Amino acid sequence: MKSRLTYDQINDVIKEINKAVISKYKILHQPKKSMNSVTRNLYHRFIDEETKDTKGRYFIVEADIKEFTTLKADKKFHVLLNILRHCRRLSEVRGGGLTRYVIT
């Protein structure tokens, strides 16, 4: 679609996004008593990022991408997100100064 990306590059980004989603929701489903302070801070950040539009849906933000993957949120990454939005694999929910990428 844009900037001559190959299917392998797109699939690699999808795998990295899936890793970020799995890591995030593993923390959210973990019992609070078993969390250390760093994990508890992440847990509270995840809860604060959730809105009524994203309630019950899997989503990530750019901070999750930086935290759990080796991807950089550069122009190429945003082009890939645009391709995934075009294919209806992701949708954007904006609000509160954050852009949430909802997995559809």
TrEMBL record:
<dbReference type="GO" id="GO:0000278">
    <property type="term" value="P:mitotic cell cycle"/>
</dbReference>
<dbReference type="InterPro" id="IPR042031">
    <property type="entry name" value="SKA1_MBD_sf"/>
</dbReference>
<keyword id="KW-0175">Coiled coil</keyword>
<comment type="similarity">
    <text>Belongs to the SKA1 family.</text>
</comment>
<dbReference type="GO" id="GO:0000940">
    <property type="term" value="C:outer kinetochore"/>
</dbReference>
<dbReference type="GO" id="GO:0000280">
    <property type="term" value="P:nuclear division"/>
</dbReference>
<keyword id="KW-0131">Cell cycle</keyword>
<dbReference type="GO" id="GO:0005813">
    <property type="term" value="C:centrosome"/>
</dbReference>
<keyword id="KW-0963">Cytoplasm</keyword>
<keyword id="KW-0132">Cell division</keyword>
<keyword id="KW-0597">Phosphoprotein</keyword>
<dbReference type="InterPro" id="IPR009829">
    <property type="entry name" value="SKA1"/>
</dbReference>
<protein>
    <recommendedName>
        <fullName>SKA complex subunit 1</fullName>
    </recommendedName>
</protein>
<dbReference type="GO" id="GO:0098813">
    <property type="term" value="P:nuclear chromosome segregation"/>
</dbReference>
<keyword id="KW-0137">Centromere</keyword>
<keyword id="KW-0995">Kinetochore</keyword>
<keyword id="KW-0493">Microtubule</keyword>
<comment type="subunit">
    <text>Component of the SKA complex, composed of SKA1, SKA2 and SKA3. The SKA complex is a homodimer organized around a central W-shaped coiled-coil structure, formed by the interacting domains of SKA1, SKA2, and SKA3, each end of the 'W' is extended further by the C-terminal microtubule-binding domains of SKA1 and SKA3; the complex forms extended structures on microtubules. Interacts (via SXLP motif) with MAPRE1 (via C-terminus); the interaction is direct and stabilizes the kinetochore-microtubule attachment of the SKA1 complex.</text>
</comment>
<dbReference type="Pfam" id="PF07160">
    <property type="entry name" value="SKA1"/>
</dbReference>
<keyword id="KW-0498">Mitosis</keyword>
<dbReference type="GO" id="GO:0051649">
    <property type="term" value="P:establishment of localization in cell"/>
</dbReference>
<dbReference type="GO" id="GO:0005876">
    <property type="term" value="C:spindle microtubule"/>
</dbReference>
<dbReference type="GO" id="GO:0051656">
    <property type="term" value="P:establishment of organelle localization"/>
</dbReference>
<dbReference type="GO" id="GO:0072686">
    <property type="term" value="C:mitotic spindle"/>
</dbReference>
<keyword id="KW-0158">Chromosome</keyword>
<keyword id="KW-0206">Cytoskeleton</keyword>
<dbReference type="GO" id="GO:0051301">
    <property type="term" value="P:cell division"/>
</dbReference>
<dbReference type="GO" id="GO:0008017">
    <property type="term" value="F:microtubule binding"/>
</dbReference>
<dbReference type="GO" id="GO:0031110">
    <property type="term" value="P:regulation of microtubule polymerization or depolymerization"/>
</dbReference>
